[in-house]
Each structure stands twice: as C-alpha cells, then as structure tokens.
Amino acid sequence: MNMKHIQYVLTVLREGSITGASKKLYVSQPALSQTIKQIEQDLGTPIFDRSTDPISLTYAGQKYVDAAQKMLDIERNLRTQISEMKDEVHGRIRVGISVQRGLQLLPQVIPEFSREYPFIKVELVEHGSDTLERMTSEGHCDLALIATSEKPNKLNYVLIENEQVVLMAARSTQLARRIPDGTPIEITEAQNEKFVSMKSGHSVRLVQDRLFAHHHIMPQILMETSNMEAGKHVAARSNAVMLIPQVYVSNSLDLQYRVQCHPILNTDYERHFYLCYRKGLYLPKYMEDFARIVFEKLEVPFDISMLE
Fold first, then answer.
1. Peptide bond into 54 cis (omega under 30)
2. How many CB atoms lie within 10 A of CB 121?
3. First CA to last CA across the chain, in angstroms?
4. Is residue 255 within 8 Å of 236, Cβ to Cβ?
5. Domain 164-263, what fold?
6. Region for residue 190 given its phi and psi (left: phi exceeds 0; alpha: psi -120 to 50; beta: otherwise)
7. pTM score of the predicted model
8. Which one has a higher pLDDT value, 232 or 280?
9. Which of 1, 136, 149, 278 sits most deeply, having the most CB atoms within 10 A of its CB?
10. Of the ranges 22-26, 184-188, 236-240, which one carries the lowest mean pLDDT score?
11. Cβ(162)–Cβ(271) below 8 Å
C-alpha cells in the first residue's frame, strides 16, 4: 500500500464510480482503472464490487479501506506532532457541524479561536449528524459536533449536553386544541396531523422514522427540510407539528405564542449532543483548545482528560 494508491481507492469509493473519481483526481479513466486492477492483482482479490451502482466495497475492500484509514491517521498524526515540536501554529481544522448548531455556536466560538490561533484555517463541513458521523469515521472531519442516539465504535464521543426530542405543535392544530401544553403524549396522538420533517441524514429523522415504524403510523408529510430553523417556523405557521430537540424551541422567543411542546411517552430513543473524533487521531493543542472553547461557550465544565 502506498499513499497514492490509497488516495485513488478512497476517491473511487467516495465518488461512487471510477469515472467520477478520474475527474476528481485529474487522471484518465483508463489509467485509473488500470491502477485499481493492479492494486487488486497485488492483493490477489477484488477491492470493488463493480456490479453495484454506486460502486461498493467487497469484504476484502473494506479491510483495505480500514487499513488505509489507519495509515492516513498515522501520517497525519506524525505531521501534526512534528509541526508542534517546531512550534508551527499553521494548519487547518475541519469541523463538522449542522447548520442549526452552527448558527448557535459558531459566532461565539470562531472569533475567540481565531484570536488564539490566527494562522489556523477553520474548514466547516455542514451536514446532518448522521452524515457527519460517517464523514468523521472516514477521515473527512477532524472534529464533529453532532446530536445522535447511537455511537459507532470507530469514534470517540465526549458528551456536551443531553437533548430531549419533543413534539412541537402549532397552537392551531387539533392536537394543541385538545391537549394542554407540556402534557406527555403518545406519538399516535399526532398521527392525523401534518408533519414537517427533517431529511434523511439528520438524527431527528432517524428518531422520527423509528417512532413511526414502531407505532405503525404514516402521517402526512407537509415538507422535508435540511434546515431545522426553517422547519420549525413553517410548522408553527402552517397548522403542523414537528419532532425537534427542545433546545431549538426554548431558544426561539418568537415561537412562544405560536407553538406548544409535548414530551413523547414510551420511547427509549435518546438524542444527545457530542463532540466526536476518530479513535487514534492525535489532537494537537489547537484542536483541544477548539473543544475547550465550545464547552465554555455552552457553559459546560471541561477538562482536557475528557479527550482520550
């Protein structure tokens, strides 16, 4: 395995085809195909299952990618440690965060971090939490700030705060007219209401899909969105309901007279807000300090020992 071959394989996997990868890598498709075939010949087994669309990994290919990620981590860690030894404070930090959390946190965190580390470039990767978990495990993010109910074993998770997913209902809905604000309810109480839904890739959508499947209900979906801020305002003004973390309602004073919220009964689906990063990734001081600033701005106690 060499770094060039690793880059080729990971790009094919990420783009889903050799054609797409060749454009990203600025190499011809025949040359890339030949390189992939040579790698497979050296291994004695195929890496990719070419019968699927997008192209997927064989079992041996998954083992190759796992080993490749470890090699990339070793190289990245070495470069970071050497840079620190030379007192170089130039570099970058790739931070995964949802648009909603970004609106809440980044205006507080980035200015202070930039004052402490003016030559560290912050690259934002903005997606839903489910997508960010995958991208962090694949090495596309250094740190990710995500809300999730599950914790894949490739990542370290540091709990920032607990979240409760509630059903937010416009006060014009039938549900709000018959059930007082704050009353815990079964999700089936809302089965005849119109839902504003997060798109797949967001952890709230995962909670929603599981609740619907568990209770065998299929409510009408008024709108799907990747923007929780937009979604909650649409629901509030459209005679609709929405599953949403309580914090996003509590922080919106303009919604106070438009909606009410209900905890969901008989569910063990929990969603908490975490800082996460790949296991085995060396965190330079500027990444540790980025984490510290996040915790401080959220008024959560932080100790460096929390970062393994």
1. yes
2. 11
3. 29
4. yes
5. D-Maltodextrin-Binding Protein; domain 2 (3.40.190)
6. alpha
7. 0.60
8. 232
9. 136
10. 22-26
11. no
Residue 46, both tokens = 């195929």
Segment 74-81 long-range contacts (CB within 8 Å, at least 24 positions apart): 75/3, 76/281, 76/282, 77/280, 77/281, 77/282, 80/282, 80/284, 81/282, 81/284
Residue 152: name the closest of 206, 71, 94 by CA: 206
Question: Which segments of the chain belong to CATH 1.10.10.10?
Answer: 3-73
Cβ pair 257, 136 in contact under 8 A: no
What is the structure's pLDDT at 232? 94
**Chain-wide mean pLDDT for the chain?**
88
CATH of the domain spanning 3-73: 1.10.10.10
> Residue 44 burial by CB count (10 A; 0-12/13-18/19+): exposed, middle or buried?
exposed
pLDDT tens per residue across span 152-187: 678 999 999 887 889 999 999 999 999 999 999 999
Q: How far is CA 138 from CA 30, 131, 166, 257, in A?
A: 26, 11, 31, 43
Residue 154 CA to its chain's centroid (Å): 14
**Residue 277 is encoded by which pair of tokens?**
């990063």
Assigned fold of 89-162+271-306: D-Maltodextrin-Binding Protein; domain 2 (3.40.190)
